[in-house]
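DM between two lab members

TW: hey, do you still have the 2-oxoglutarate dehydrogenase, mitochondrial entry open?
JB: yeah, one sec
JB: this one, 995 aa:
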Amino acid sequence: MYRILVSNYQAHLLRYNGSRISAKADRYYMSVGNSCIKKRPLPAKFNQITFARQYLANSSNYMDDMYKAWSQDPKSVHISWDAFFRQSPTEDVVSHAQNMGFGLSQKDEAIIDDHLKVAQVVRRYQYTGHLIAKLDPLNIASADIRRDEKSRKLGPADKTLVLANNLLEFCKQNPERMFQLPKTTYIGGKERTLPLKEIVARLENTYCSSIGAEFAHLKNLNQINFLRERLETPGAGNLDVETKTRIIKRLARASGLESYLAKKWSSEKRFGLEGCEVLIPALKQIIDQSTKHGVDTFVIGMPHRGRLNVLANVCRKPLVQLFTQFAVLQGEDLGSGDVKYHLGTYIERMNRTTNTNIRLAVVANPSHLEAADPVVLGKTRAEQFYADDKEGKKSIPILIHGDAAFSGQGVVYETFHMSELPSYTTHGTVHVVVNNQVGFTTDPCNSRSSAYCSDVSHVVNAPCFHVNADDPDAVIHVCNIAADWRAKYHRDVIIDLVCYRRNGHNEIDEPRFTQPRMYEVIRKTKPVLDKYAMQLEQEGVINANEFKEQKTKYERICEESYIEAQSVKTTKLRDWLDSPWKGFFKNKDHLKMGTTGVDEETLVHIGTKFSTPPPDFEIHKGLERIFRARLDMVKSRTIDWALGEALAFGSLLKEGVHVRLSGQDVERGTFSHRHHILHHQTKDKAVFDVLNNLYPKQAHYTVCNSSLSEFGVLGFELGYSMVNPNSLVMWEAQFGDFFNTAQCIIDQFIASGEQKWVRQSGLVMLLPHAMEGMGPEHSSARLERFLIMSDDDADEIPELDENTEMKQLEQTNWIVANCSTPANYMHLIRRQIALPFRKSLILMTPKLLLRHPDCKSSFDECLPTSHFQSVIPELNSGNFKKLVFCSGKTYYDLTKARAERNLTDQVAIARLEQFTPFPYGALKATVAKHDGAEVIWAQEEHKNFGGWGYVQPRLENLLKAKVRYAGRAVSASPATGAKFLHSKENREYFDSVFN
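TW: and the structure you got?
JB:
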């Protein structure tokens, strides 16, 4: 027992430098040495530490003895010595041994040094072996794109990338010598000693063959050991006969579909999968393995390459529906449709491998390759929320990327950075990179600066498996590891399928213009199906006749589906919906809208709760004043903007509608007006969620500050809104101008998504907007951009009747509004749910009006008899000479300027609250009240911005008369940043209205 005590203490002293660490060792062994003292009491004033030190000082040969015993049998010494000899650098051993009075012979020092070299060899292969792995099916490209930029030739494996010259020489000189394996490796299995050449061979087979595993950047040792064990354990990657048979069948189907499409539609772009057919068995294996862990919902996002094959052979979308996309058929659904390789789908089917029901959705995606990434994550998060799947055990996102897009498009980075955020995490995404080794025509060395296209994933400590796509066994092995990793750790993981494009960017592109050498090699390269079939024949898994029959059988299936497709006369875009809303449209009157008003009792209850902080919860002193003011408003039956918003949210929550508000600083509000999350002033991280405490059985309210991202977060919220139409999902920009970095989501999904893919969304975009002298990036939410993308025709005035408003709302691509009162804001938000269909809402929201004394509404304007007003006419009566139409915050500036000029009885000011769809009926009625008055459009934005370009032709066509513009002149910048110039422009603006 004394020897154990001394051994432990010895190990700690030798492993660590400095008195601070030694002191820790002293304190540790003061406790663990008690058992020794009980068996053999020490002399008075002599503790176990003193004893250990004296014992060591008098035992010069002690380390020699311990090392000799360990080298013969590691189990013969205490575990601390075992760890010490395995892991401690040689120089530390020798130095500390000499300091402690030990005498080590040169022979012993050499033995220790050799064992440590073996440990270094193991570590180097584990962490850098991927650099010389045989990843390229064409054997012409290096893993490190910077090694030889001119030829990109790999040549013989350059082991100096892995081992230093001294380690290489050491391995050459000691091939047969037996070494104890360090505990940081699993290559020995049950064996703990191996010849050095066997150690190196097993390491090379694990880390330098068809799999290049990157995990050195991980911080968690348990995660690293999980990957080491799954990769290194002898036989870990061996597949059974059943699995290999399944792979060849799936490969045959993947290859067969591409061959059939090429035969039938040789001149059509289809962005086929030739060169990476293994993607199909890879995805199916991820799904199979994840299903074993309990996953039943898979949301897939991908670019166009291989999409048709994924739809057919992963999702099992009927081939008849697929083939009809190649025919010139009339569309049964309204909309423009889209090219076949942009479409999505939703399938519920039986997974025959695991005999469980699964749901698969492939999200529609435009040619902006990575734009669907955040949409997929948002959709997955919503699936998890509605299934109460708090740990992401039931739903999983799978993102398929191209190599150039993965490294080149910033939304990938934005998406990765949401992976661990509490309100945005999907608890792990499986990323699969279809690594073509060329971006359209551009070499990797010209399209990225990193060695690998996947290096962006390092920011979230995701392991990456680079794998040769022409080695199906290796691909399936890493797919199993990836699925198990996600199930165990709920973190992202990347599979980098290093492959090639047999036909260039698309089937009619000529790749040899820019890649002559690569495509000369590709021309001579056998397809992976033929290679794998030959391998399995040699292994005795299949025979040639079976293989031929598999190919023939699938061709017959394709031919039968093709014949059936010839009889189809119309194509249904609804067959390609990635988010079907079962039963939502059933038995609904598309011309009837639900009530947006709220009864007074509910308004008072919500207003009071919203204005009352919880007891024994210390809030900021400034908030006490705000809450008192809110409560006073409730008592006086008036509301401001923040209270009107709370009434809208709270009443929907009461009705069972889930409400989600997301964006930068939305919890407090950029302008400190909202305060939906209260923070205790003396207790750290103690918070109170106001709107989640209104009613005992209300729906859940999610308000979440986002990362400093617009593209990624807006895409996420769009995906979230697609899952459940009976929910209100909103994204708020910090300043309205900032939406422009998310323009791709707006252009490709929100503005055109319904027309291209028959996909509705009730997503709300809140964009702070108004000219207040705050400069060009904090003034205009670029209203004109949304209006110019609205799909109504200025030359077509609808027939005006009682159903006109609902018909317009149903037919528009979205709603664009700029409210000026809290009550109208409340009605507009509630209308998103009251409509019998879903339309996205683009809403210009105020800044100055959040606290403007005149921007108030009464409860009367919120009651069940009230509704949203698309136009608010002049409330004053009189014989007006001018009728001024305006929108939003400028109304309050104009009324003030009108009063200062004593023109209240001469100029009427009406507010256009909704631009799209254009409210012809309400505008016509307003003009009729002021017959003979000059009609003016006034806006504080510059003439080429704001609403003028949209309003002018529509209003003039309605009135059959000219409308005068009053406002700022044209400008390249949306606003000035100089206060004096802003004031000057305002004076000129008011003069142009009233003079």
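TW: got it. The chain has a mean pLDDT of 88. The chain has five domains: 2-104, 114-232, 241-570, 600-769+818-862, 871-994.
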